[in-house]
Amino acid sequence: MKKFKERRKRKIPTPQYLANVALHYLGKYAASEGSLRRVLRNRIVRSAMDNPEFANDHEQKSKLHVEIETIIEKHKKTGALNDTAYAETKTNSLRRAGKSRRVIQQKLMLKGVQKDTIEQAFQQVDGDDTSEEAEMKAAIALARRRKFGAFSTKAKDPDRHKKEFATLARSGFSM
Hints:
By secondary structure, the protein is mainly α. About 70% of the residues lie in helices and about 0% in strands. The chain has helices spanning about 15-30, 35-50, 50-55, 60-80, 85-95, 100-110, 115-125, 130-145, 160-170. Helix 2 packs antiparallel against helix 4 and helix 5 crosses helix 7 (about 115-125). The longest helix has 21 residues, at about 60-80. The radius of gyration is 22 Å and the shape is elongated. It starts with 14 loop residues before the first helix and ends in a 5-residue tail after the last helix. About 20% of the residues are buried.
């Protein structure tokens, strides 16, 4: 019978280790402050699960949480971490993909971006368009991508019209 490899015990994180994790993460992904904070805190939580003595050392964990904030501030100063630029880039990308304002707001809020930063991103990306015009452009982009309505290549089906409207509604678009 095949024996399973035993999982390595995670090491207790140090400030330098967290700084290295942050640098690696930012090098690999575009990130918001909230997502970087979540990644670093998860490292502490996972280490606490493997090391009972570390789990009970609340002083050391609180020092590491303070260090996380220091790391985030350092990366904000260098420009590697910029919620405004992240929100604008994501908003622009999701608008072109045919996502509604509601969906974009939810995605950005899940990443830890503040509401006022999200509003600024919408103003920047939508430009001179009103909210309704921007939503219409996004809905048209979704319809084009999914081959709805006038973009359809299939034969006309009475139920298809209802299904297309249902898809638009689930995507966050209003009537």
